[in-house]
Amino acid sequence: RLSCIRNNIWLASCGVVSAGLAVLSSFGLMLYCGVPFVVTVANAPFLILGVGVDDMFIMIACWEKSARENKKLDTKDQMAETYAEAAVSVTITTLTDVLAFFIGTWTAFPSVRSFCLYTGTAFIFCYIYTMTFFGAVLVLNHKREERNQHWLTCMPVKTGKDKTSKSCLYNACCIGSCSSESSESESEHLMSKFFKSHYGPFFTNKWVKLFVVLLYGAYLASSLYGCTQIREGIDLRNLASDDSYVIPYYDDDDKYFSEYGPRVMVVITESVEYWNQSVRMAIENCMQSLE
Asked: Cellular location of this protein (predicted)?
């Protein structure tokens, strides 16, 4: 927004901070519990940032919608309406994400198991911080707007009817436009108008709904078939960088030695009398039996 009062730069920044706090809390808890940190876990913050920013947008949209539809609401009632609408979608999103990643902890691969544990726990913390920390930030930002304070300096923004009292540069920096009047009311966002006036009515058409049901049925059938074709496994090449010596090593190993299978070693952990011929014969017989 161009308005220096209704600008939400700090609000968006706090939404990113909320996701960062979730990552720190998750990593700290998992490390404290002794869960090993593997290199794949380093990708988890990007996933948490995506979900955290999405939850932030939902909270802000519901907050502004309640304020636009009923301007007489006090802060407590507006917060209640925001949570009543936003918390449902945020909760469902979090539950599905957490369930998906915690199911991934059943895998036999320790690196994947650690990644799923770190990420699933981070989603839980992200939900907690969104419902608590970011909600408090919403209220603080609302109080700043009510007091007509600048988004950066938090100094009161004085507006008057006389356009000549201040220069155009001053009005643009401290109000948001060359006009010396600050717009208190705000029209509905273009994206909201599009979904309400065009997208929603299009998908409520009976033929479109029938097409969507058929399309989803085809998608579900192909997904079930794909689940029957999945085989558990992992390609070790994917765990190394593209220029690593590991990749040509595995390529040559598959090309020249795949028919032999893995190398088997036998280790004797006890002290034995190697100088005794009968002991040596017993070891040889053991090796032949294993072969």
From this structure: Membrane
State the pLDDT at residue 162.
45
| Lowest pLDDT segment from 3-12, 84-93, 165-174, 232-241 | 165-174
Which of helix, strand or coil describes residue 17? helix
Task: Determine the Cα–Cα distance for residues 269 and 143; give it in Å rounded to an integer.
Answer: 72
Least Cα distance to 30 among 107, 118, 102 occurs for 118
DSSP-assigned letter for residue 156: B
**Using alpha carbons only, what angle is made at residue 67 by residues 61 and 68, rounded to the nearest 5 degrees?**
85
Question: What are the start-end ranges of the E strands in the chain?
Answer: none
Single pTM value for the model = 0.68
Alpha helices in 70-109 (DSSP H): 75-103
Strand locations in 83-178 (E): none
Burial string for 260-291 (b: 16+ CB within 10 Å, else e) reads eeeeeeeeeeeeeeeeeeeeeeeeeeeeeeee
Would you say 165 and 180 are in contact if contact means Cβ atoms under 8 Å apart? Answer: yes
Check if the beta carbon of residue 146 is closer than 8 Å to that of residue 138.
no
Which amino acid is residue 153, in one-letter code?
T
User: For residue range 72-97, what is the model confidence (pLDDT) as tens digits?
Assistant: 788 899 899 999 999 999 999 999 99
Q: Please state, in angstroms and rounded to a whole number, the distance separating the CA atoms of residues 22 and 119.
A: 10
According to DSSP, residue 149 is labeled B
Rounded to 5 degrees, φ, ψ at 137 are: -65, -35
The CA dihedral of 54, 59, 62, 65, to the nearest 10 degrees, is -100
Asked if 129 contacts 15 with a C-beta cutoff of 8 angstroms, the reply is no
Q: Which of 2-11, 76-85, 176-185 has the highest average model confidence (pLDDT)?
A: 76-85
